[in-house]
User: Which sequence fits this backbone?
């Protein structure tokens, strides 16, 4: 997921940076991430939220009342996604795997992979992460269906022009997550391959012809964080750890632009 500086967001949303700061500080409408240097970074969710705030204000709603409206909308959205999780869970429990595949395919026509992964797939997979054998079996079936769906999608997009990326796991056990990250990248213009097994030791120089997109789990160790920042600064990899990634130099620059190859990589 790309991160944007406040200046970039101001241009994208046609709004003054001073207004964005006021929405955050005075009204609590925004919660941007921060770099080590304290600079704001906005993800695509925040950009959508800013546009929604603008729509409310343009329609005549006072800015002080927008937060309540947003909270109501977010709760309604969360309830909607929860219902869709229950639909998928029902298909799994009933053994209706073909219906699940068709449902997933249909949803992917109307929603991006990024939205589906964030609001539907990751939360459901987390619910099924249990010591109970039945739930683990359902998660395994779901993962198999997801990988099959994503493999078809990657095969379809491979015929189109675009930069090549290799999605790699570094010391991770959840291989399905690599496929989910590759799926997101493919919808953002990359021709993606997935390294089927996680690597205990990562050496970017072994893959000189590919842009490496590296996933090292939700909570990478400090050594991984420092090494990933260095590699990213050198243009060797794109770091897929959205939650923990910050600008390597502490400056106000985006962490990873999935829509463009990093420096030093040539389009394939």
Assistant:
């Amino acid at each position: 997921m790309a991160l944007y500086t406040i200046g970039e967001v101001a241009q994208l949303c046609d709004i003054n940076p001073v207004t964005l700061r006021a929405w955050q500080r005075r009204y609590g409408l925004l919660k941007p991430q921060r770099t080590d240097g304290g600079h704001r970074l906005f993800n695509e969710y925040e950009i959508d939220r800013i546009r929604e705030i603008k729509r409310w204000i343009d329609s005549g709603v006072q800015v002080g009342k927008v937060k309540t409206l947003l909270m109501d909308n977010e709760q309604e959205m969360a309830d909607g996604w929860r219902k869709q999780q229950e639909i998928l869970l029902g298909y799994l429990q009933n053994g209706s795997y073909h219906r699940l595949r068709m449902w997933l395919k249909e949803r992917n026509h109307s929603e991006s992979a990024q939205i589906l992964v964030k609001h539907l797939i990751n939360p459901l997979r987390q619910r099924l992460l249990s010591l109970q054998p039945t739930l683990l079996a359902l998660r395994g079936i779901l993962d198999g269906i997801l990988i099959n769906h994503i493999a078809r999608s990657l095969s379809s997009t491979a015929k189109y022009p675009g930069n090549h990326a290799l999605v790699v796991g570094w010391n991770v056990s959840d291989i399905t997550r690599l496929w989910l990250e590759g799926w997101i990248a493919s919808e953002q213009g990359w021709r993606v391959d997935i390294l089927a097994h996680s690597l205990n030791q990562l050496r970017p120089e072994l893959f000189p012809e590919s842009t490496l997109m590296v996933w090292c789990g939700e909570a990478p160790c400090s050594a991984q964080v420092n090494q990933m920042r260095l590699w990213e600064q050198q243009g060797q990899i794109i770091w897929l750890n959205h939650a923990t990634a910050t600008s390597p130099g502490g400056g106000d620059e985006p962490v990873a632009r999935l829509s463009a190859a990093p420096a030093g990589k040539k389009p394939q």
